[in-house]
Amino acid sequence: MGDTSRLCSVWLGSETGILKGVSLSRKQAFNFCNTSHLSRDQEVRALCWGDPAESELLVGSVDGTVKTFSTEKGSFTETRRCGDPADGCFTGLAVLRGSALVSCVECGTLRVWKEDSSEPVTELSAGKNVCRMRQSPVHPHKVATGGKENGLKIWDLESPEKPVFTAKNLRDDWLDLRRPHWVRDMAFIPGTDKVVTCTGYHQVHVFDPSSPQRRPVLEVEYGEYPLTALSLTASGDTVVVGNTHGQIALLDLRKGLVRGCLKGLVGGVRGLQCHPSQPVVASCGLDRFLRIHSLEDRKLQHKVYLKSRLNCLLFSSRDLEEPAGEGGAQEVKEEEEGDEVWDSMERVEEKPKRKTTEEEEELQKKKSKKKKKN
Amino acid sequence: TRTGSRQHTQGGGVETKEEQEEKMEKSEQAAAAFPPSFSVSEIKNKQRRHLMFMKFKQEKRKQKLQLKKKKKKEREALGDKAPPKEVPKTIENQRVYDETTVNPEDEEVAFDEGTDEFCSYFNGLTNPKVLITTSDRPRGRTVRFCEQLATVIPNAYVYYRRGLALKRVVPQCIARNFTYVMVVNEDRKVPNGLVLCHLPDGPTAHFKVSSVRLRKEMKRRGKEPTEHSPEVILNNFSTRLGHSIGRLFAALFPQDPQFVGRQVATFHNQRDFIFFRFHRYIFKNEKKVGIQELGPRFTLKLRSLQKGTFDSKFGEYEWVLKVSLSAVTVFFKMQEELCCLI
């Protein structure tokens, strides 16, 4: 179990409660299930990495439990009860300083949970009908929430009484009618304070909390259907959005133009993510496929059929190894690729721990090579 | 006779180059009268242009026949050593296996289907109750089509639309325990669309309807269908999408068919078109069956499958038909294979 989970570079959560790991180099998908029998209660709604070294995954299900999955061992290690199913499904999960867990549910309650206690340390209400909560990658104690008729709010978890930034709705339209707004997904732009959101009324907004203007700084419209998922590219000036019809577009945030569309998806987009280092974007949705497109030429690179509808996905930051088919020089190449992977990975503070895991990994790789040889 | 420029190349053996050179020489000789880049389309006079084009086509046809004869002779001359005959490319030949085909033993798919929106029907907990209506102000043909549909589907009720919004109709139907809403859309006095919405929270399928034949237009038909529940035949719904649509159709009819009535409704899927037929059968002996077609017949093509009840603006779509403008036509099939036409 452990070997297969270590190979996987993309993790997806499905509606049947199965956590799926996909290894693109081997073109294989693996199912990881918590219980022996499946049930719809276990439908996975939120996924996030448990630690910066990406050895643990936190899986949030519909019944209010958050399970920890270890990629080293390939099995679920812990289950935590983080809220009632009556409150609604998880709309966001994030990790704070390694041990604390931030969770947000649809009814708007944002809670911070500590390792041991079953009661939340901090609790705040972000309004009703929250659709998404995201954590800022630069400042882990800042989170953004947004939902239907519930504008973008940026909260600082250290001072949870009032939001740091509340967005104002757009100006009334030409008939002086109030514009409806429905924030579906958001992302923090690296390098600056700005936040990008996508709405159910096919708009993409950029907000700047540092400016006195609480209304969006930039507004871009795409398509005629609600935009359900959003992801920023590594460079930070292009955003990828997907809507309920399966149309995925690349939008440029500097001018607000549509750069191009990614073709292939036929169902509503549920999850989108750009790879942290490679110019590659993964999309999953109701059509039960995982598709990986390249951002430069917008061509489909990989397509994997996974039998259930997919809700969310996560990339692991290591390189998506090149497709198989190298032949004899596999051994040498694998070693080289291994070195590259380890060089490109970010350094973590705890150096001694890293070294041991590195050694373990290399040992495992050698073992698997030996197995392949045999 | 002088024909237009020989722009076409002939297939076949090594002689091509030499033949072409010969042609070039000939055309150069003839070029004295015509400019070298002459083509039939440059003649302004329509009659003469037509004549020249006809001659050109005849020449082409003659050459093609000559080539065929030559090939046949060669094949006969070689006898046993002749290379095998080439198989012509057809749509059915060019198919690629569709990976979404459902494997009957697959646990995950079985679980998915066992707990989806139709599970209460397939577990025997609910009975179908269908509401049939049309778009606003329907014309005679559509009205008769709906009435005939109501005789085919047991426990179906036809209601006049009265310009009501579908989004308001749906909750009222749920309150009155309906399991399906079927809306026949009409355009220019002919039914052309069908929205089939499974009620409590089920998927909504939007179809394009074509070739509707009402009962009186059918030749050699039987008498009116009786009140017995028909058997249902679903052909070729083998991919995952096909399964969902197949279950959508199956849940329209009551689970236990009354074999006394000897009626059968068939939904046959071929190349993404679903053909609906309604027959009455009688077994003459163990091997022979006589069938009589009753009831309306129509063809459907799926345009979109939306998760949840009817909400075309904000609903999430599970499958949308995308009409591609390029020359590459791809059939995303509800049937076994995915087909690529280049």
| CATH fold node name of chain B | Rossmann fold
Radius of gyration of chain B: 29 Å
Task: From the 3D structure, determine the CATH topology of the domain at 41-125 in chain A.
Answer: Thrombin, subunit H
Kindly provide the name of the CATH class of chain B. Alpha Beta
How much beta of chain B, percentage-wise?
Answer: 25-35%
Structure description:
In chain A, 12% of the residues lie in helices and 42% in strands. With 374 residues, chain A is mainly beta. The longest helix of chain A is centred in the C-terminal third of the chain and has 23 residues, at 351-373. The radius of gyration of chain A is 21 Å and the shape is globular. The model of chain A is unreliable at 322-336 and 351-360 (pLDDT under 50). Chain B is an alpha+beta fold. Chain B has one domain (101-340): Rossmann fold (3-Layer(aba) Sandwich), CATH 3.40.50. Chain B contains seven helices and 13 strands. In chain B, the strands form two sheets. In chain B, strands 2, 3, 4, 5, 6, 7, 8, 9, 10 and 11 form a ten-stranded mixed β-sheet that branches. In chain B, strands 1-13-12 form a three-stranded antiparallel β-sheet, with no helix packed on it. Chain B starts with 14 loop residues before the first helix and ends with a strand. Mean pLDDT of chain B is 83; it is low at 9-13 and 336-342.
Strand-helix topology:
The complex is a heterodimer of chains A (374) and B (342).
Chain A lengths: L1 H6 L2 E5 L4 E5 L4 E5 L11 E6 L6 E6 L3 E6 L4 E7 L8 E7 L3 E6 L3 E5 L8 E4 L4 E6 L6 E6 L2 E7 L8 E2 L16 E6 L6 E5 L3 E5 L10 E4 L5 E6 L5 E6 L4 E5 L4 E6 L6 E6 L5 E6 L3 E6 L5 E6 L4 E6 L14 H15 L6 H23 L1
Antiparallel strand pairs in A: 1-2, 1-28, 2-3, 4-5, 5-6, 6-7, 8-9, 9-10, 10-11, 12-13, 13-14, 14-15, 16-17, 17-18, 18-19, 20-21, 21-22, 22-23, 24-25, 25-26, 26-27
Chain B lengths: L14 H16 L15 H33 L16 E3 L9 H8 L4 H4 L7 E5 L5 H13 L3 E3 L7 H10 L4 E8 L2 E9 L5 E10 L17 E5 L4 H11 L12 E8 L2 E11 L5 E19 L8 E5 L8 E3 L5 E5 L1
